[in-house]
Amino acid sequence: MRTASDILKNKPDMFNAIDADAKIIDALHMMNSVNHSYLVVKKNDSFMGIFSERDYSRNVILKGLHSDSAAVKEAMSDSLPSVGLHESVESCMKLLNSHKTRYILVFENKQFKGVITINDVLREVINNKELVFDEQVVHVFNETVEFNDRIF
Asked: Which residue segment(s) compose the domain that 11 sits in?
């Protein structure tokens, strides 16, 4: 069974972190330069939350904050669902769906390990469906695909 740890191992080292006191405009420039939809927000090397494109639209634009004067900590998300390194990919999928979010935080012994995105989970499922789901789910999926292939 594939786990959150497997997903994080396939991701590059985290290089998209920003200080909580940085200005939002600087966060936007950084997100653009690293080509990510989120940044990890830290204060003195301690994890504080994430700042995403969605945070910008909902917590900056709609609330009338100014990107050049407001700090990232004023608009970041700090209450996202979290998992441990040994949580299954299937559980991560369910958590993303039930919380209607695009990000899951990964912690081990209260230490921040990384972010799993909905795209990370999708990539993992596509590449390893037989290791993500139990055998019965894969069997049903394969029957459905074969059935649909015969129709079209």
From this structure: 4-151
Domain count for the chain: 1
Give the domain CATH number at 109.
3.10.580.10
pLDDT average per 10 residues of sequence, the chain (152 residues): 91 88 97 93 94 94 92 95 94 93 95 94 81 58 52 44
CA distances from 86 to 8, 50, 77, 82, 113 (A): 11, 22, 24, 12, 12
Pairwise CA distance, residues 58 & 39, whole Å: 16
What are the phi and psi torsion angles at 81 (to 5°)? -65, 150
